[in-house]
Design goal:
The complex is a heterotrimer of chains A (389), B (318) and C (291). By secondary structure, chain A is α/β, with parallel strands linked by helices. Chain A is built from 12 helices and 14 strands. Chain B has a two-stranded antiparallel sheet. Classes of the chains: A alpha/beta (389), B mainly alpha (318), C mainly alpha (291).
Chain lengths: 389, 318, 291
C-alpha cells in the first residue's frame, strides 16, 4: 500500500475519533428536577496519598447515607459523585470540571492534598460553586476566597500546639526534619514563621525523602547543631524511619511529630522507637480518653463506632475531614433549595458546629473555622496514645 | 506532490472536525478534556519528532514541558510581565537548555541515551521541588493569570479550545513540512543507521541537536499552554512518570506518525477518564496495555493496524 | 571524626543496597544487553514477600530468605519468557518501554496484593546498635554489608569456577560463538534473568527490616541502583559493587556537608557526569556503544 492510501486511512481514523468525541458530548446527561441533590467528591483514593483519600471517600459515603436515612435535606435525598484524583493536580481539575458541568453538583468536598486543592480552586471560584477542601495547607484559605472552605486542621494550629508545649518545657532551640513534599513544606513555613512568637530558635533544618531508607546522616547534622528538641514533619513511612534512626543514634532529645502520622499505623511501623514521641492530633485518636464534658466526645465515639462497624477498619482523623465537610454542607443547605450563593453565605454563618476535627465557627474572615483547641498533644506510651496535661 | 495533497486534505478534514467540535460541544468538561488532548498531542508530537523520526529516545521530556510552564508562571506572576513576553522567554529557555544538554547527551545512543535523558529529567524535577523561593516548591505555584489579547481574555474553555487546537494544527502542518523536506529524510536516515547517514554526508550531530532543540521548544510551548489553562502548576506534573506518559503516548499512537501522536494523546487522556470506575486496577491495566502494544505492535497502533491490514491484503492478493 | 564516621556508616548501609541492585542490573546487561527498568519492582516484591513470609506466615528468617529469592527468580523467568522473548522487534526503545510497562504492572499488582500501606519486620538479629568511636551502627547494617559482599563473592566464584558460569560469560562475550561451541544461549538468557531478579530480591530482603516496604518503594531504589551500576561500570561485577558503595557514601557526605534537599540529585548528577566523561564507568567492562 502506498503512502497516499495510508494517509487517507489515518485521516479517516482521526475523523472517526473526533466524531466519537462529538457523540460523547451530545449524550451528556440532561438534568432533571426532583432527582437527588448531587454533591461532588474529589479524593486521592489511589496513589501515594491513598491513606488520606481512601478513608475520606468512605467517610463521605457514610455521612451521606446517614443524612439520607434521616430523610435527606428538606425532603430531598443527597447523592455522592466521587472521582479519584490520584493526587495529580491536572487530573483533579478535570474531575472538578466534570463534577461541575456533567454531574451538576451543588458543591464539592475535597481534594485531599494541598496541590490538588490549589489547582481546583480557580475552577470553582470561576464557576461560583462552594468547595470544602480536606487538605492541610494553610494557603487554601489564606487569603480568603469567597467560595473556598476547608475542614482539615491547619498547620498553624499544629505548630502552635507543639511550640506552646515546648515553651512550657522551657525548650528554646529546636531542629526540624522536613519531608520533601507539600505537607512537609507547609509545615516548615509554619515552624520557621512561628518560632519567634514563642521565643524559640530553629538551629538546624534538614530534609528527608518520602521513601528514604536511612536518615542518620541528616540526624548527625542535627546533633551537631546541639538542639534541645527535634520536630519531624511528614507522613508515613518517612517519620517512622526518622524515629528509628533517632533511637539508633541514641539521641535522647524529645522528638515531636506532626499530625500527619496520627494513626496507629505509625506505632506499628516505628515499633518501640515510637515510645515517648509527642505529637499534636485531632481528638479522634484519644476520643476514649477525653473528659466527658468535652463536646466532641459523643460525636467522635459515634463516628468511630459507625465507621468501624460499617467498614471493619480503624477510623482515622483523615476520614473525619470529609465527614465534617458533608455535615457542614448539609447544615448550610437547609432551606436553600440548592441555591449555591445561599449555601455559601450559610456556610459563613455556621457557628459552633461540633465535628470530628474540632468545633467549627466560620466567618467572613475565617474559612477554616477551627481554634487551636482542635488539637490535643499526645504522647506515645506502651504502643498507644496518652493525653499530655 | 500527491502526498502533500493528501496531507492537506487530512489537515482540512481535521481542522473542520476540530472547529465543529469547538462550536458544537457545549459542555465545559468535554471542552476541557479536548483542551488537554490538544496539549498532550503537542507534547506527543514534539517527542515523536525526536523519537519516532530521528530515533533518539528521551525519558526526560517532561523537563522541557515543565521549563515552559515554570518560566511563564514565574515571569507572568512573580514579575507581572505579559504572558506574551513570557512565551518567547519560556521557549528560549527551553532551547538554550536543550542546546547545552543536547551536545553531550546526544552523543550517547540506545540505553545510554535513555539514561542520560532520564537523569536530566530527574534533576530538573528535583530543582522544581527544591528551589522553593522561586518555584513554590512541592506545594506548587498558584495564581497564574489567564491569557489575553488586548481586551479579549482566553478565560472560557471554548476560546482556549480554539487557541490550543489552532496551535496543534499549525504544528501538524509544520512538522509534516519538516518531515517531507531534506531535513526529514536526513532524520529518517539517522533513525535507520547513524553511521550510514554520516557516510552519505548527513551531519548527524548537528541534525540530532536541531531536532532535539525543536522538540524541546514544542514541549515548552505545551507547558506554556498548560500553565495558562490550569492556572496552577506543581512539580508532580513534570516528574519521571510524566515523561513516561509522554513516551507512552508516542509509542501507543505510533512512532513516526503525526496522526499517531493525536491518537496516542487522545487515548491516554481519555482512558483514565473512562477507567476511573475500576480505579485500583487502573495501574495494572495501564502497564499491561503498554507491554502488549509493544510486544505485538511495536510500531504503535496506527502503524501496527496498517501493517496488519497490509499483510492481510498481501495474502488476499496471492 | 565521630560525625564523619556516622556519615560513613550511613553511606555504606545505603551503598551496600545500591550495590546489590546494581549487580542485578549489571549481570543482566552483561548477558543480554538489556536494561530492565522493572528491576526496582523486583526489589519491592522481594521485600514484601519477605515481610509476608516472616510476619504473617511466621517462617524463620533463613528459609524465608531462600524461598523469597527463589520465588522472585522464578517470577523473573516468567517475565523473560512472556514479555521479553515474545518481542517481535527487540530494539532498545521497544525493550525500554516494555520493561517500564512491566514495572507499572508489577507495582499495580503489588498494590492489590499487599495494599497501599507500608509494612514492617524486625531486624534479622535483635541487638543494641554498636557504638564505634561515638558513631552508632545497626546490626542490620552489618548484615546488609556482609550479605552484599558475600553475594558478590559467590557470583565471582560462579563466573570464574563453574561450567554454567563460564558458559554465561561466553554468551556475554559473543553469543554466536558460544552457540557454535554448543552453549544453549536462550537458556543462558533465561538464567541471567533469574540471577538478576534474584539479586533484586536479595536487595529487597536485606533492607526490609530498616525501611518500611510498600508497593511504591521500588522505582527510586531501581533508579539509584542503576546509577550505581553506571558509575562503577555497567556489566562489571566488582564495578557495580564499587559504584554502589561510592554512591551511598557520596550521598551521605552530600547530606552531611552540602544539603539534604539535594540528596536525590547526587545520584543523577553522577550519572550524567559518568555518561558524559567516562561512559564505561570507573571499571569499564564492556565496549561502550557511544557514537
Amino acid at each position: 500500500m502506498d503512502t497516499k492510501s495510508k494517509c487517507r486511512i489515518i485521516a479517516i481514523v482521526t475523523a472517526l475519533i473526533m466524531a466519537a468525541c462529538l457523540f460523547c458530548a451530545s449524550t451528556a446527561a440532561a438534568e432533571q428536577k426532583n432527582e437527588p441533590i448531587k454533591i461532588g467528591g474529589i479524593f486521592s483514593v489511589t496513589g501515594p496519598a491513598s491513606f488520606l483519600g481512601d478513608p475520606e471517600k468512605k467517610s463521605m459515603e457514610l455521612a451521606i447515607d446517614r443524612i439520607n436515612a434521616k430523610g435527606g435535606i428538606d425532603g430531598r435525598m443527597l447523592e455522592a459523585v466521587i472521582y479519584d484524583s490520584e493526587g495529580d493536580p491536572s487530573r483533579a481539575v478535570r474531575n472538578a470540571q466534570r463534577l461541575l458541568t456533567r454531574d451538576n453538583v451543588i458543591a464539592i468536598v475535597g481534594p485531599s492534598l494541598t496541590p490538588t486543592s490549589l489547582a481546583v480552586v480557580p475552577v470553582l471560584v470561576r464557576a461560583e460553586v462552594p468547595l470544602i477542601s480536606c487538605a492541610a495547607g494553610n494557603q487554601i484559605t489564606d487569603p480568603i476566597k469567597p467560595w473556598v472552605f476547608k475542614t482539615a486542621q491547619s498547620d498553624i494550629h499544629a505548630v502552635s500546639s507543639i511550640y506552646a508545649h515546648m515553651q512550657k518545657k522551657g525548650i528554646k532551640r529546636v531542629a526540624v526534619m522536613i519531608q520533601s513534599d507539600a505537607f512537609g513544606e507547609s509545615g516548615r513555613d509554619q515552624l520557621l514563621g512561628q518560632a519567634g512568637d514563642f521565643g524559640i530558635e530553629v538551629v538546624a533544618q534538614e530534609n528527608f525523602g518520602t521513601r528514604d531508607t536511612d536518615t542518620t546522616a541528616q540526624l548527625t547534622n542535627i546533633r551537631r547543631a546541639d538542639p534541645e528538641a527535634i520536630v519531624c514533619w511528614g507522613t508515613n513511612p518517612g517519620p517512622a524511619v526518622v524515629a528509628r534512626n533517632v533511637q539508633q543514634l541514641g539521641i535522647e532529645l524529645p522528638l515531636y511529630n506532626s499530625h500527619g502520622v496520627a494513626s496507629p499505623r505509625f506505632i506499628d511501623l516505628a515499633g518501640d522507637a515510637a515510645e515517648g514521641i509527642l505529637l499534636p492530633t485531632g481528638k479522634i485518636l484519644v476520643a476514649e480518653l477525653l473528659p466527658d464534658n468535652d463536646p466532641q466526645k459523643a460525636v467522635l465515639l459515634d463516628y468511630i463506632s459507625t465507621y468501624e462497624e460499617r467498614l471493619g477498619e480503624t477510623a482515622s482523623s483523615f476520614g473525619g475531614y470529609a465527614f465534617d465537610g458533608i455535615n457542614l454542607l448539609a447544615e448550610a443547605m437547609k432551606g436553600t433549595d440548592g441555591d449555591k450563593n445561599k449555601i455559601r453565605s450559610n456556610l459563613e454563618q455556621i457557628k459552633g458546629h461540633v465535628g470530628i476535627s474540632g468545633t467549627f465557627t466560620f466567618s467572613g474572615t475565617d474559612h477554616n473555622g477551627l481554634a487551636p483547641d482542635a488539637f490535643v498533644m499526645v504522647r506515645i506510651k506502651d504502643g498507644t496514645w496518652e493525653l499530655v496535661e | 506532490m500527491i502526498r502533500i495533497d493528501t496531507h492537506i486534505i487530512a489537515c482540512i478534514v481535521f481542522a473542520a472536525a476540530a472547529t465543529a467540535a469547538g462550536i458544537l460541544i457545549d459542555n465545559a468538561y468535554y471542552l476541557q478534556v479536548m483542551i488537554f488532548i490538544g496539549i498532550n498531542t503537542l507534547l506527543a508530537l514534539s517527542l515523536n519528532m525526536l523519537m519516532g523520526y530521528a530515533g533518539q529516545i528521551s525519558l526526560g521530556h517532561a523537563a522541557f514541558y515543565g521549563i515552559g510552564a515554570y518560566a511563564t508562571a514565574i515571569l507572568s506572576t512573580t514579575y507581572n510581565l505579559s504572558p506574551w513576553i513570557a512565551l518567547p522567554v519560556a521557549i528560549f529557555a527551553a532551547v538554550v537548555i536543550a542546546y547545552i544538554v543536547g551536545i553531550p547527551t546526544l552523543r550517547l545512543t540506545g540505553y545510554y541515551l535513555g539514561m542520560g535523558t532520564l537523569g536530566f529529567g530527574m534533576i530538573v524535577s528535583i530543582i522544581f521541588r527544591e528551589w522553593y523561593s522561586v518555584t513554590g516548591g512541592a506545594s506548587g505555584f498558584v495564581g497564574i493569570p489567564p491569557l489575553s489579547i488586548g481586551n479579549f481574555v482566553f478565560d472560557t474553555d471554548r476560546s482556549y479550545f480554539f487557541l490550543v487546537w489552532g496551535v496543534v494544527l499549525f504544528f501538524f502542518i509544520m512538522c509534516r513540512r519538516i518531515i517531507d523536506s531534506r531535513v526529514g529524510r536526513a532524520l529518517r536516515a539517522i533513525h535507520d543507521g547513524e553511521h550510514a547517514a554520516a557516510a552519505v554526508g548527513v551531519n548527524t550531530a548537528k541534525m540530532k541537536l536541531s531536532i532535539f532543540v525543536l522538540s524541546a521548544a514544542m514541549a515548552s510551548l505545551a507547558g506554556f499552554l498548560y500553565a495558562h489553562q490550569v492556572y496552577f502548576i506543581s512539580p508532580g506534573s513534570f516528574s519521571f512518570l510524566a515523561s513516561i506518559r509522554i513516551v507512552t503516548m508516542v509509542v501507543i499512537g505510533g512512532m513516526a506518525s503525526i496522526w499517531g501522536s493525536l491518537l496516542g494523546a487522545s487515548l491516554l487522556t481519555l482512558l483514565p477518564e473512562w477507567l476511573h470506575t475500576f480505579a485500583d486496577y487502573e495501574m495494572m491495566v495501564y502497564g499491561l496495555v503498554l507491554m502488549l502494544v509493544m510486544i505485538f505492535l511495536p510500531r504503535g497502533l496506527t502503524r501496527g493496524i496498517l501493517d496488519i491490514y497490509e499483510n492481510s491484503r498481501k495474502k488476499d492478493d496471492r | 571524626m565521630q560525625e564523619f564516621l556516622q556519615y560513613f556508616f550511613s553511606g555504606i548501609t545505603n551503598g551496600a543496597i545500591y550495590a546489590v541492585i546494581a549487580i542485578g542490573f549489571s549481570m543482566l546487561y552483561r548477558s543480554t544487553d538489556l536494561i530492565n527498568f522493572a528491576h526496582g519492582e523486583f526489589v519491592m516484591i522481594g521485600a514484601l514477600t519477605m515481610v509476608t513470609l516472616t510476619m504473617t506466615l511466621h517462617v524463620p528468617v533463613v528459609p524465608a530468605f531462600l524461598i523469597t529469592v527463589f520465588g522472585v527468580a522464578i517470577l523473573g523467568l516468567v517475565f523473560e519468557r512472556l514479555a521479553i522473548r515474545t518481542v517481535s522487534r527487540p530494539e532498545p526503545i521497544v525493550l525500554i518501554i516494555i520493561t517500564v510497562g512491566a514495572s507499572i504492572f508489577l507495582r499495580g499488582l503489588a498494590m492489590l496484593i499487599w495494599g497501599k500501606d507500608s509494612h514492617t519486620m524486625p531486624p534479622f538479629t535483635a541487638h543494641q546498635p554498636l557504638d564505634i568511636a561515638g558513631a552508632r551502627l545497626l546490626t542490620q547494617s552489618i548484615w546488609i554489608v556482609l550479605i552484599a559482599i558475600m553475594v558478590a563473592a559467590c557470583l565471582h566464584f560462579f563466573y570464574k569456577r563453574t561450567l554454567t558460569g563460564k558458559a554465561m560469560h561466553a554468551c556475554a562475550i559473543n553469543k554466536q560463538a558460544a552457540w557454535l561451541v554448543g552453549i544453549p544461549s536462550k537458556l543462558m538468557t533465561l538464567l541471567a534473568f533469574g540471577l538478576s531478579t534474584g539479586m533484586g530480591a536479595v536487595a529487597g530482603i536485606i533492607i526490609a527490616p530498616i525501611t518500611m516496604p510498600a508497593y511504591d518503594m521500588g522505582s527510586m531504589l531501581g533508579l539509584k541502583g542503576f546509577c550505581a551500576a553506571m558509575l562503577g561500570g555497567l556489566g562489571s561485577l566488582w564495578g557495580s559493587v564499587l559504584g554502589g558503595f561510592l554512591l551511598g557514601i557520596l550521598e551521605a557526605l552530600g547530606v552531611g556537608f552540602v544539603s539534604s534537599g539535594l540528596k536525590d540529585a547526587t545520584a543523577f548528577l553522577l550519572l550524567l557526569l559518568v555518561l558524559y566523561f567516562r561512559p564505561g564507568g570507573i571499571i569499564s567492562a564492556v565496549k561502550v556503544k557511544r557514537f
